[in-house]
Design goal:
The structure holds two protein chains of two kinds. Chain A is an all-alpha fold. Chain A contains twelve helices and two strands. Chain A has helices spanning 3-22, 25-51, 59-71, 82-104, 109-129, 160-183, 185-203, 207-233, 243-256, 262-281, 286-299, 307-318; strands at 139-140, 235-236. In chain A, helix 3 (59-71) packs across helix 8 (207-233), helix 7 (185-203) packs antiparallel against helix 8 (207-233) and helix 10 (262-281) packs antiparallel against helix 11 (286-299). In chain B, 36% of the residues lie in helices and 24% in strands. Chain B has helices at 40-47, 70-76, 93-102, 119-131, 147-160, 177-190, 203-209, 227-232, 234-241; strands at 2-11, 14-24, 28-33, 55-60, 63-64, 78-80, 165-169, 195-199, 212-217, 220-225. Classes of the chains: A mainly alpha, B alpha/beta.
Amino acid sequence: MSAPRRALLILAFLALALLPLLAGKFYVDLFAKIMIMAVFAMSLDLLVGVTGLVSLGHAAFFGLASYMVVLAAPDQYAPVSLWTSLPLAVAASALLALIIGALALRTRGVYFIMVTLAFSQMVYFVFHDTKIAGGSDGAYIYVKPQATIGSWSPFDLGNSTHFYYAMLALLVLTLGLLRLLLASRFGHALRGIRSNEQRMRALGFNTYAYKLAAFTLAGAIAGVAGYFAAVQFGVVNPEMASWHQSANVLLMVILGGVGNLFGAIVGAFALVLAQDFFSSLTKHWLLPMGAFIILVVMVLPRGLIDTLQTLRGWAGRRG
Amino acid sequence: MLAARELTRRFGGVFAVDRVSLELQADEIHALIGPNGAGKSTLINLLSGELAPSAGTISFRGAPVPHARPEQMARLGVGRTFQRSNVFMELSAFENCRLAAQARLPRGWAVYERALDCRASTKAARRALGSVGLESRNDATAAALAHGERRALEIAMCLATEPSVLLLDEPLAGMGAEESLRVLALLRTLKRGRAILLVEHDMDAVFAVADVITVMADGVVLASGSPEIVRANSAVREAYLGDAF
């Protein structure tokens, strides 16, 4: 990473760390939600940008884990422990990803997109059309999961500021772990698969196993995001596993720029903040929102993360 | 080391490879020649597991390899190059070879170790690039290499996997005279302890390095033997070599 980039990154995280001291509850909650979406987007970038697997069903894992917050509790008023329900939710998402991945990864390209979409629609309709956790209406989470260990309570997920810092820690942790993964031999192999899978096989890589591992890991991380999204919203509904949600997170990854995780974070911030901004201006906010996305894609084909380079390119041409 | 017995591949009603048997021996360069469409590339694709045979068997060091897949053949030690350069275009020449070397290492899942700190693969990559004369192009992306350099990279990647059998599909195509000579010299040193199958159109090169030559036409073997025997074979002269030989 270049020095100006590193400085920019540190500055950005410093600003995030200071935000609750300066902003009101509305923005603390909004930015906590954005950071959850950023973790979700990073998990999809591992597939789309790093491995070259465009999935349109990533919300299935997000949605299943969010439902696990409700399903892990004996009833709606009983508090569950964060330390048991989170691993349970993530394990459920990982297992679902392993099963869907094992089948979907037998296809390629546009067929992979269709098959992942089909599987996620199945998950959506299981929650929509059965009585599980309130059917199509969804269910409320009246009591947030408790983070207590013995009698010690390190933080309270019901407190906006505590929740915000927990999500900031989650964002940094996820980014750090995934960067480590990308630098490893496993990460390099995933990039090789994106570049030329046939060649990887001819070299001796079992690319199916690598792709399945990436798909499962991405599903697990999406599960972490889905779990905390449910905790924050205090409600789960089938929409969280819908294809709108899958497309939304895919849009974040594409908008921000694929393949380096930072783009996914930038995309999550840009998309949610743009939604917030345009919807505060007009009730027909989807129109300017669409124009914004088209503009970004046309001017910055490699995503928002590339803004600096693109500006430098323009300046260079003029000079 | 690698043997094909009655190997057959049909595409619809066409026999691209028809009951071909051949055996690649260690310390030998086995050249495979024949006109376009003779089935040479199909045979390589069968031997490397890229294509499944319609009939016939492949065996490696005497053990049959049924339903061979490409990654399986590669891990047995059968390396190949492709007729059209088939490399990682976005990656550097060095990373192309490093990935190739990594393919043969255990613990591919180790996520705690940085790939660039993996000495076994970085050393093998440098050695492979050096042996084809690309050491000065380490950091260039494969896309930025000249055509001949990319052909050399293709060979270097194959070498980085440390194969005991090399299947080379027209490695000299598109190379300059100097590069070709370097590769031919390299092949002579490589054959020690290894078996090499060389598909090549440049007859001067073939007769300069081959220990055994097999001639194919229309999917079948016309002749096989030492260069002298093949050169004297009247069927081969008629079908392929012409009067120049």
